[in-house]
## 1
Amino acid sequence: MSNQEAKNRIDELSILLHRYNHLYYTEDKSEISDFEFDQLMAELISLETKFPEFLTTHSPSQRVGGSVTKEFENVVHKYPMLSLGNTYSWEELQEFDARVEKGLGSSDYEYFCELKFDGVALSISYDQGQLKRGVTRGDGTKGDDITTNVKTIRSLPIIIPKLTEAFEVRGEAFLSKDVFQALNEKRASEGEELYANARNTASGTLKMQDSAEVARRKVSCYIYSFLSENDLFQSQEEAIIGLKKVGFPISPTYKKCKNIHEVFEYITTWEQKRHELPVETDGIVIKVNNYAQQEELGFTAKIPRWAIAYKYKAESATTQLLNITYQVGRTGAVTPVAELQPVLLAGTTVKRASLHNANEIQRLGLHIGDFVHVEKGGEIIPKITGVDITSRNLHSEEVTYITHCPECGTELVRTEGEANHYCPNTAQCPPQIKGKIEHFIDRKAMNIDSLGEQTIKQLFDASLVRTPADLYELTYDQIISLEGFKDLSTKKILQGIEQSKEIPFRVVLFALGIRFVGKTVAVKLATHFGNIELLMNATREELIAIPEIGERIADSLIEHFNKEENKIEIKRLQNAGLCFIEEKEDLASVILEGKTFVISGVFSKFSREEIGGMITSNGGKLVSSISSKLNYLVAGEKMGPAKLEKATTLGIEIISEDQFLKLLENGDYV
Ligand code: IVH
């Protein structure tokens, strides 16, 4: 491909990808499938790698990240990022309204109400129609330049051809409730500590050095302010509608209010409804709508006189701390839990609150019997926010953290730099044993759905099962002797256990519950090594050399496979007939093995995804771009001329849909 051709194709792909991205994220429409989108993106990235002179800072490929920033540059905000006055009371809002009326010398003004999104404030500047810089709020005067990370926010435009003058927008970046939950589920399946709330996680994410990891986290954003030297908009309403029109992500929850009474209605409307939104919110923001009037009112030293935040009360209560108990998870991590005198909070009775770790207990300086303040905000579990020292019993003592496992008595360990204490007795500590078996039989793992938490407990209590391998040695007589079991339920359990022997290696590897080996990592390891022996014998260096396997995962694998009891367990599972080889038979056939394919254009019998599926399930490999190493180009209607020309020049075999189907059947298409 000549330089000029590469440039043309890069331009063409950039326009297409920006457009599809915009349609998908701001208009909820998709003209192509995710697969096709990924293919175009892969083609663009491959061209930009080969022709780096054509890689621009506004390329759609910036969305997937890739660059690593060691230290973010501290930059000065053009317009300082101020905060807002806060209030929790309607009286104070009424006073705010009176000040606005007095300041303007008239009652001829309107308010613009928005929700107050609980995320991370960003300032994003554009010039000549391109996103130039994304900066954190920092101290309000100076923030960190996190442009590469901001570009991974899919809903945020990287190019705005319709607005070429310099301007800045402000908005709130956040992890949507769904994304946050999925992230925590993934962490749970990897045996990692859960993140406490979406806001701090979003903040941590945007400060990550590896932008590719940021891209995977799927950060979202809502824009709520526009700033520029020119009078493009006359009011907040115009700005919000105008920004929405050119493609910025705007929450549809705003409302123009004629007076403070309509503002009160807005507050009431959203008090409960806000919980249904995809983003956490903690209040509403009330802004004088007209920009000229905003200017007239101006600012105090720190906050605007034309806006105020009304915060919904984080529901809180005071209750007595009865005790602290300690839970041991399947990985041995110990979590302290506050046992409370039951108290009504946000419509539910709260009896317990998470205390995270020893540092948290120390920070709060808790004594048993203390009266503590409990709050339910963005967090999943209520948290203790403080202690009422005035009502403390003088004879009570400060809580000291346990030194030994409450379940098995083993001395706890705390690795340098880690917040959690661990029980190292992985092989004998009951909750660790039960937790590992529960993980093993889980729907996402070996899927033995005839077993459940209760049965595992019964099997454990009867000393029948200590490790997953014991499940495969259970007999009919042993199970039926348990309380509540009859012929049918016993047979069902045995059948479920038997069926699990069909589960492929990649899933078995996940089911073993090795720390940091989640589903995705398990698939990578299984396909890379092909069987358990090669994986067990791999050195740290070999493991780290695999893309996306880091030091933490490598160390965890080595530690796991070094333990004699784990080696024995794997041997027993192998003897029981579980799958420890990544079977090629998972495929429909291997007729396309060793062959690479590019699919392009539109087909009459099958969709592109279907053809792609047929290729991979018959042993072939899909690649994103045409190179001299490519075996086949499956060409449909309306295929790009550049591709066709490139394939012809390189002498690649170009086949039609029908020829492909013949190839699939006979290994040959003539
Ligand atoms: S407007 C002059 N609108 O709240 C300040 N802020 O306490 C203009 N926030 O730092 C800010 N949602 O991070 C505005 N709809 C919204 C908002 C919002 C959340 C945050 C923002 C700001 C803080 C102010």
## 2
Amino acid sequence: MTGYRVAIVGATGLVGQEFIRVLEQRDFPMTSIELLASDRSAGKKLPVANREIEVKETTSESFEGIDIALFSAGAEISRYFSPMAAKSGAVVIDNSSAFRMVPTVPLVVPEVNPEDIKWHNGIIANPNCSTIQMVVALYPLHRVNPIKRVIVDTYQAVSGTGSAAVDELTKQAKQVLDGQNTIPHVYPHQIAFNVLPEIDVFLDNGYTREEWKLVEETRKIMHADDIAISATCVRVPVFTGHSEAVHVEFSQPMLPDEAERILAQAPGVKILDDPAISLYPQAWSAVGTNEVFVGRIRRDTSHPNGLTMWVVADNLRKGAALNAVQIAEEMVERAWVHPVEARE
Ligand code: NAP
Ligand code: 12T
């Protein structure tokens, strides 16, 4: 079997660690793996498939002989190293916001727009976590009955921000329960036992950048520039699992039964919807899973063509590492990536 030489940039981070788990679990065809991070982690050893692999500092030479480079070390690192990696022949799958809206870079969710992978120029962007889970649920419905407008409110876990935010919630929760004061570092305010309507920076239009990503990325992935979207992104004191209340206006009425029938067949979707037994998607039970869970499917009684649903996924898996590995798998399956020896 053909194998690929894979590099992970940000291998010591929350998403980097999830990359390793997902590659192992899915038995991705690898002949070697390079674990890259900052100079702070150089020399550290991390387990991959029962072997200890040494972490190396990311440098301009790190990508020689690499076929697939999975980046998750922040937008700045991606902006600096991804073009170098692509130039040395690797296909970059970038999990940061650096290139998502660049017109020459495909932005891909394999359940929605796998064909876009084909026109990459060395870099493929992985969308924002909140966007990914929303489009997996919306696209199958949109194909049947074009969507005109979406109002979405998110309930986002702290692991989306990285390991420092997970530590901050852990520490603050203990402090609050012990009656001590908390001092925020990662977020502008205390996140333990609190809810913050601010994710990423504020823009001049009053939205946050996280909210604006949902607007622009959804249109790009679904090839639907006309969909009107408004989002409020909210950080909640949950470790992992993003939840979303999604209110959709279709061109024609979309009855809940029909939506359920369509979503039951949709790739990557699992319906959990039985109010009688309080069955609906929950962040806690989505942790470690691959699906986008949909429930609370009901008519939006405020509009004749309205439908409302509750969408939950593991933000580190489908929202980040899994989606990126699925992009790599799609390239392998369709022979859109070739190992170094096979090039030229
Ligand atoms: P994290 O837990 O804070 O990890 C950050 C990683 O970046 C670590 O491996 C760190 O290495 C590495 N890093 C920092 N500075 C570096 C440098 N100068 N050179 C090379 N590596 C460096 O964060 P995370 O949750 O894994 O997320 C990382 C990034 O992924 C985020 O900034 C974001 O851009 C992206 N992300 C995207 C989504 C999405 O929506 N699809 C979701 C989550 C994250 P050290 O351990 O050596 O410091
Ligand atoms: N600020 O990849 O803090 O654009 O949860 C993902 C997650 C940016 C991104 C977060 C963020 C991204 C967060």
